[in-house]
Amino acid sequence: MELRVIDKTDEELRIEIGGEDHTFMNVLKGELLQTDTVTAATYDVNPEQSGGQTDPVLSIKTESGVDPLDALAEAARGVQRTADDFTDAYRAGIDA
């Protein structure tokens, strides 16, 4: 996964996430939207732009005074916790 910041201000971030698709982006966007300091989160994959599939661009807007990179890091930790919880539940289910 490659990350490339396209635009960044104090409360907004646009970042390209290389090598990912809708599956990961929907999970990340969902986690961002559950983050209290995030006011908006969306992503776009525009295949018409370059004649084929492009890497998704994630857009984040946060409350005043909250760095969107911090919000992204918090959401990434939330995705990791969810994956860990799923793994634990799965292991408990097959061990039962």
UniProtKB/TrEMBL annotation:
Transferase among keywords: yes
Leading EC class: transferase
The reaction(s) this protein catalyses: RNA(n) + a ribonucleoside 5'-triphosphate = RNA(n+1) + diphosphate
GO cellular component: cytoplasm; DNA-directed RNA polymerase complex
Entries under PROSITE patterns matching the protein: RNA_POL_L_13KD
Protein localization: Cytoplasm
EC number of this enzyme: 2.7.7.6
InterPro entries reported in the protein's UniProt record: RBP11-like, RBP11-like_dimer, RNA_pol_Rpb11_13-16kDa_CS, Rpo11-like
Segments forming domain DNA-directed RNA polymerase RBP11-like dimerisation: 12-88
UniProt name for this protein: DNA-directed RNA polymerase subunit Rpo11
Source organism: Haloferax marisrubri
